[in-house]
Amino acid sequence: MKRIELLQQLMNHMKQRKSVYLFVSILFLMGIIFGAFLVNSISLTQRHDLFLHLSQFFHEMNNGHIEATANELFVNSIVHYSKYIGLLWILGISMIGLPIIFILLFMKGIVIGFTVGFLVNQMGAQGFVIAFVTVFPQNIILIPVFIAVGCLSVRFCIRLFKHTFMKGIHEPIFPHFLSYTVTIVCLLAVTFIAALFESYVAPSLLKWTLSLF
Prior knowledge:
Layout: H1 2-16, H2 18-41, H3 44-62, H4 70-92, H5 98-123, H6 125-134, H7 136-165, H8 174-212
Helix pairs in contact: 2-5, 2-7, 4-7, 4-8, 5-6, 5-7, 6-8, 7-8
């Protein structure tokens, strides 16, 4: 019953803010598409150098020469996601952070699109399989989280701007700030699931996939 109520609240929340969610989602998708096409815009020499580094990494991974432990990878992932989401949160509470939020979301989309695009461009079907088992699973969680955090940051930034500069708005800002912060922390906690996959499952899947080739 609680799950149904929670789902209904979530749907109502998204319906009331559908324009923001739609804009941020399209922006993120555009970043992914741009990142995929960006692969073809870099020179052959740059692609060759990147592929050499990638091939060396795959070789070391397949032969067990990667020294980083799963715990170290997990901590690194959590630190990375915390910094990214924390930066979006900080930008949300600053009235000048709105364009930077959009840029960060677009750049995150570019990174994902470029990663998948480069693997497919250089390795064909093998690259697609590698991307499918090591990039797609965690991003099923991460992309909605990043979009949600981006939308919340945009909404709070706009609310703060209106509260500061528009006359006739006397609603206290602190309850909204508290709700905004708690929700961001909850979304950050969700990234722990993606970090667990990246650290404890993805390396094994990658090694198994490389052994097939």
